[in-house]
């Protein structure tokens, strides 16, 4: 489950990606993550872990992590094979969601590929490449479905859907702007269209504008566009992020509070990305370690247990569960048990974000 960083040249992608890799999580904790030069693994910030560490006097804190994939080199004409166009579009196909960096800072020393800063134009340039690539894929699919339709009339519905997608793309709109039923959504998901992938727009602003806490005109443009796609916008200053990523935790807190910021742009982006991927965390806690585990929203208790160990899933008996807030209110697990706040949940329980769980299982 990777987030792919895309954007035109010279908008601040590498600066942001460097901040990602420097802030990088200890990879020993994340054996599932890919170790490649253009993949960065970062911890998902979660203040609840610190609270649990103090409660349990734990030796170790292990946050969960997500991966960013640096997809540099996307340019105008990529869908027609300009530059290494097809390769980059293929890279985007592999990611679960897109982080689109948009330049919202003026700096005469930094050349803009189009000669001037224009966030909306830049967004459209990139989006059109993805749309062109999708259009090709949809047209091929329409041809195929038409042939199959002769033998199987039930495909008419899908053909109608494909034609609807095609119209939207031909209008220059991303597939994610389509109004779909739940069933249609599932079908379109399988096509793996680039312009259907969930997206976050990162408005990269100057140092001054970041500290001003006001949206400049360029950020407003990005927000207006994002709204048409129901997408989120995260405002950052890549330059400041790259400075922050050099600092340890304590220095970082101090630096941010001096700037009047409550959290770093990267932390905001990580949290937004985690949510965008439909992910959430449940927690385990004890004197050895407190730890966050990533699951998809809607995951049931045995499958959540399987994230820790396959034996936990196979031999699942029950999940002793309490919400983080209830645990904190009670003050300790012992007190929470005395108050009857710890629930015994079975195999159909849908795990909630922030559940603190102890799994019971047969070996
Ligand atoms: P990429 O081509 O999108 O990867 O862009 P880079 O990250 O290499 O950035 C291009 C240039 O813009 C570099 O010289 C950066 O130092 C500069 N830059 C990136 N972010 C900022 C920013 O927030 N403010 C300013 N003033 N310059 C930036």
From TrEMBL:
Protein keywords: ATP-binding, Magnesium, Nucleotide-binding
Co-factor requirement: Mg(2+)
Domain of life: Bacteria
Stretches assigned to the OBG-type G domain: 1-256
Binding annotation for ATP: 10-15
Residue intervals of the TGS domain: 278-361
InterPro entries membership: ATPase_YchF/OLA1, G_OBG, GTP-bd, TGS, YchF_C, YchF_N
The protein's role, per its UniProt record: ATPase that binds to both the 70S ribosome and the 50S ribosomal subunit in a nucleotide-independent manner.
NCBIfam families assigned: redox-regulated ATPase YchF
Annotated family: Belongs to the TRAFAC class OBG-HflX-like GTPase superfamily. OBG GTPase family. YchF/OLA1 subfamily.
The name this protein goes by in its record: Ribosome-binding ATPase YchF
Naturally occurring in which organism (per UniProt): Crassaminicella indica
Organism ancestry: Bacteria, Bacillati, Bacillota, Clostridia, Eubacteriales
Gene expressing this chain: ychF
């Amino acid at each position: 489950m990777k987030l792919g960083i895309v954007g035109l040249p010279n908008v601040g992608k590498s600066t942001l990606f460097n901040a990602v890799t420097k802030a990088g999580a200890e990879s020993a904790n994340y054996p599932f993550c890919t170790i490649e030069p253009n993949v960065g693994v970062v911890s998902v910030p979660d203040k609840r872990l610190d609270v649990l560490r103090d409660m349990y006097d734990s030796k170790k804190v292990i946050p969960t992590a997500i991966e960013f994939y640096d997809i540099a080199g996307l340019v105008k004409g990529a869908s027609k094979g300009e530059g290494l166009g097809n390769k980059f579009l293929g890279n985007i196909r592999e990611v679960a969601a897109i982080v689109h960096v948009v330049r919202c800072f003026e700096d005469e020393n930094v050349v803009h590929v189009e000669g001037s800063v224009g966030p909306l134009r830049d967004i459209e340039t990139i989006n059109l490449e993805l749309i062109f690539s999708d259009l090709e894929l949809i047209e091929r699919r329409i041809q195929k479905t038409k042939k199959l339709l002769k033998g199987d009339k039930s495909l008419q519905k899908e053909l109608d859907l494909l034609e609807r997608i095609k119209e939207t793309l031909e209008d220059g709109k991303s597939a994610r702007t389509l109004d779909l039923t739940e069933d249609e959504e599932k079908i379109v998901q399988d096509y793996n269209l680039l312009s259907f992938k969930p997206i976050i727009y990162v408005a990269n602003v100057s140092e001054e504008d970041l500290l001003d806490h006001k949206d400049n005109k360029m950020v407003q443009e990005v927000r207006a566009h994002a709204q048409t796609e129901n997408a989120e916008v995260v405002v950052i200053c890549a330059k400041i992020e790259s400075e922050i990523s050099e600092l340890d935790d304590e220095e970082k807190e101090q630096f941010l509070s001096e700037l009047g910021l409550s959290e770093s742009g990267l932390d905001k982006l990580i949290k937004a990305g985690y949510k965008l991927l439909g992910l959430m965390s449940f927690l385990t806690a004890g004197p050895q370690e407190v730890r966050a585990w990533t699951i998809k929203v809607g995951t049931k208790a045995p499958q959540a247990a399987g994230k820790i160990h396959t034996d936990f899933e196979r031999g699942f008996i029950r999940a002793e569960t309490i919400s983080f807030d209830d645990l904190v209110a009670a003050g300790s697990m012992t007190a929470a048990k005395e108050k009857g706040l710890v629930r015994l949940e079975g195999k159909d329980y849908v795990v909630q974000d922030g559940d603190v769980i102890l799994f019971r299982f047969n070996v």
